[in-house]
Amino acid sequence: MDHTLLGFVILYLVVSIGIGLFAATKVRNASDYITAGRTLPMFIVVAMVFATWFGAETVLGIPATFLDENLGGTISDPFGASLALILFGLFFARPLYRMKLLTLGDFFRERYNRPVEIVISGAIALSYLGWVSAQVVALGLVFNVLSDGVITQPQGILIGATVVLLYTLFGGMWSVALTTLVQMTVIVLGLLWIAKLVGDMPEVNGVAPVVEHAYAAGKFEFWPPMEWAAVVTFVAGLLTMGLGSIPQQDVFQRANAGRNETVAVWGTVIGGTLYFLFAAVPLYLTYSATLVDPATTTRLLAEDAQLVLPTFVKTHLPLYAQIVFYGALLSVIMSTASGTLLAPSVTISENIIKEFMPHHRMSQKKLLWITRSVVVGFTALVIVYSLWSLQNETSIHTMVANAYKVTLACAFVPLVAGLYWRRANNLGAGLAIAFGLVAWIGMEFIAPDAALPPQFAGFLASLAGMLAGGLARPSQRTPG
């Protein structure tokens, strides 16, 4: 075990916790904790939106899927993930920003009623379990690789979850904003520099030979066979994340923290575009590993494709490059984990717990205390789910892709209809939720591998429910 490398990693973790504790000095009330007082400039919002998705799955999960299934296997991420951020910026950020909401769940209360708010908020919070757990599992993987197996992956999961909890707990959205700014700088500069080092290797010799080799190996096969079942599965893969991750608190929270509408809209669009472009860098690095060390790559592909890139860096790059890479890797994981840990916690406290408490007793200070308590509780739940997923050998990419099924099935249609259809009403929202959940869960049990994926069946049923309810009764007030 290289103690120098591990020492630098520990120092980096301590600095991250320190930034989080500094951010806590800016938190005076629940609004500061949840939206950073809606004061953040464009460059910080772009950094936060970029970091929304640029996590463990981008550096470890997507390249592993690319090696296993070719480019078409990455349709959900980065293609679907980028689409979600760009669509949110263009069509959702402005009207939601104008409503001056604290959480996305507040929209469902304002537009519909409290039962709709509570059910959809619960679904949104639940969807984060797989997403945050994917980041924590990746942290466990990193600590395991760094320590040459001295730290087991379950122990790494506990360490990683504790670090993220510590710097998110006290500073909230301010912690996310300040740590993400530092972490994004490390990510971009670090990975670009590593890519240059790898490109200078004689076996790689730049970008073009890697692209040509991958193309010749059929890795750029993207479109599905022109068969109904294959096309539906492909489109559902794009839309599960492309639409299912739009009604999400972390995406809304980042846009909503901007200092004005323009920042909210274009910060999200630019961040989403940068994410799509930069996701190519880990793909390039991982495929380069197959050229430099084909024997090790073949062995790791049979064991766990997610280990290809971190193992390649540790065995073929100098120590200073390893320090930069693992600093960047920890940055992407922790920046995603902190925001996605905060998002469900504020949703649960603001839109579920608060609704069951006497409103005249709910001060900003008490809401802040409750939110921090939920952050701790949700972290414990994430650790349990992460260990269970590890035991069941669920891949990071699969954990992330599964996270957005519930929101596609029951939250997307009520959000779009609430903003853009005057006839959307409580009955329509209730039917959209009920039809969507019943169809999705039913299909998961009856025909999980059907040509029409269960979550997509839920989405269509949700759409039918909203149309039926909206046409059966007169319209309600529109938001804003």
Can you walk me through this structure?
By secondary structure, the chain is mainly α. The chain folds into two domains: 3-399, Sodium/glucose cotransporter; 404-480, no CATH class. It has 23 helices and no strands. It has helices at residues 3-23, 30-35, 42-53, 56-69, 75-98, 104-111, 114-146, 153-169, 173-199, 208-216, 228-244, 249-256, 261-278, 280-292, 294-303, 308-316, 319-353, 364-391, 396-402, 405-410, 412-420, 426-446, 454-472. The N and C termini lie far apart (58 Å). The mean pLDDT is 87.
Secondary-structure topology with pairs:
Elements: H1 3-23, H2 30-35, H3 42-53, H4 56-69, H5 75-98, H6 104-111, H7 114-146, H8 153-169, H9 173-199, H10 208-216, H11 228-244, H12 249-256, H13 261-278, H14 280-292, H15 294-303, H16 308-316, H17 319-353, H18 364-391, H19 396-402, H20 405-410, H21 412-420, H22 426-446, H23 454-472
